[in-house]
């Protein structure tokens, strides 16, 4: 039996956590993602960039008052990739 | 949390945990629109009732416009510095309910003036109570479902109340449908 390949972009704890959160909500800002994952700002920033470059998430930078605000949303490509990843996981676990 | 590879079981557990963590509990900020528009409506209703009862001048009905104008300004300043970190489908659904209710009430309020006489207090009370009931259903907050349903029933009863006293009954509906639930929800949000 051949096992499907797990998407290396999603097969990482923090990126998977970010994608799981964004799948559940319509949009989340940087602070929310950082608080929910417990990761450092620098680490979150790096992973958001990777997911954005892959087209899995959409990042919008703006302002809330005088502060910058980064809002992330999952894209259709990202949602499809996540779904494929979960299906692949199920295959590994025989679910 | 680090950039490390997980095994398959750990991946599924992480996904479940993150999704569970996004379930939003009620926050006290959600109660603010109920309190703002609830109190504004009650206050304006009492003032309009008093002025209509004493002067019989229908021009005082223009004071109703204070509700959307002042309410919107208050909410704008209340929300200006608060940062919403996340928006869920539920948030969007509730926003749409209130946009539709608000616009409908605003437009409908001009109908008796320019088109045809109609029981506008009944219509406004019914629509706003429907909004509260729908919000309760979407967010699974029984308090809102119950208070909204009471408001809807009371709106039909309002049809049998004649004269300026109907305005007081209208105010009472908003007390039950918005002010009281708003206080309860605010208190719950603070406890969190």
Walk me through this protein's architecture.
The complex is a heterodimer of chains A (95) and B (192). Chain A is an alpha+beta fold and 95 residues long. Chain A has a domain of 61 residues: Winged helix-like DNA-binding domain superfamily/Winged helix DNA-binding domain (Arc Repressor Mutant, subunit A), CATH 1.10.10. Helix content of chain A is 54%, strand content 20%. Chain A contains four helices and three strands; from the N terminus they run H-E-H-H-E-E-H. Chain A has a three-stranded antiparallel beta sheet with strand order 1-3-2. The radius of gyration of chain A is 14 Å and the shape is elongated. Chain A starts with 12 loop residues before the first helix and ends with a helix. Chain B is mainly α and 192 residues long. Chain B is 73% helix and 1% strand. In chain B, helix 4 packs antiparallel against helix 6, helix 6 runs parallel beside helix 8 and helix 7 packs antiparallel against helix 8. Chain B is elongated and about 75 Å long. The model of chain B has no long low-confidence stretch (mean pLDDT 89). Chains A and B meet through helix 1, strand 1, helix 2 and helix 4 of A and helix 1, strand 1 and helix 4 of B. Strand 1 of chain A pairs antiparallel with strand 1 of chain B.
Compact description:
The complex is a heterodimer of chains A (95) and B (192). Chain A is α+β, with helices and mostly antiparallel strands and 95 residues long. Chain A is built from 4 helices and 3 strands, in the order αβααββα.
Low-confidence stretches of chain A: none
Mean pLDDT of chain A: 89
Largest sheet of chain B: none
N/C terminus separation of chain A: 15 Å
Give the count of helical stretches of chain A.
4
């Amino acid at each position: 039996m051949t096992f499907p390949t797990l998407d290396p972009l999603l097969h990482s704890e923090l990126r998977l956590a970010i994608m799981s959160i964004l799948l559940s909500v319509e949009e989340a800002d940087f602070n929310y993602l950082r608080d929910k994952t417990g990761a450092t700002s620098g680490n979150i920033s790096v992973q958001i960039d990777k997911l954005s470059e892959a087209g899995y998430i959409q990042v919008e930078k703006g302002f809330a008052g005088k502060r910058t605000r980064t809002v992330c949303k999952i894209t259709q490509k990202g949602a499809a990739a996540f779904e494929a990843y979960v299906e692949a996981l199920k295959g590994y676990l025989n679910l | 949390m680090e950039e490390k590879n997980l095994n398959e079981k750990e991946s599924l557990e992480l996904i479940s945990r993150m999704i569970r963590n996004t379930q939003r509990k009620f926050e006290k900020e959600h109660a603010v629109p109920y309190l703002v528009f609830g109190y504004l409506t009650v206050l304006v209703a009492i003032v309009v009732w008093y002025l209509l009862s004493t002067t019989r001048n229908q021009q005082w009905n223009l004071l109703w416009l204070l509700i959307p104008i002042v309410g919107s300004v208050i909410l704008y300043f209340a929300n200006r510095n608060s940062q919403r970190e996340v928006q869920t489908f539920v948030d969007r659904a509730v926003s749409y309910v209130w946009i539709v209710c608000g616009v409908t009430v605003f437009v409908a309020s001009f109908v008796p003036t320019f088109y045809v006489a109609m029981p506008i207090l009944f219509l406004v009370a019914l629509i706003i109570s429907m909004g509260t009931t729908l919000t309760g259903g979407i967010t699974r907050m029984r308090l809102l479902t119950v208070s909204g349903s009471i408001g809807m029933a009371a709106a039909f009863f309002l049809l049998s109340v004649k004269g300026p006293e109907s305005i007081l009954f209208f105010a009472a509906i908003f007390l039950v449908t918005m002010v009281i639930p708003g206080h309860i929800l605010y208190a719950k949000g603070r406890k969190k």
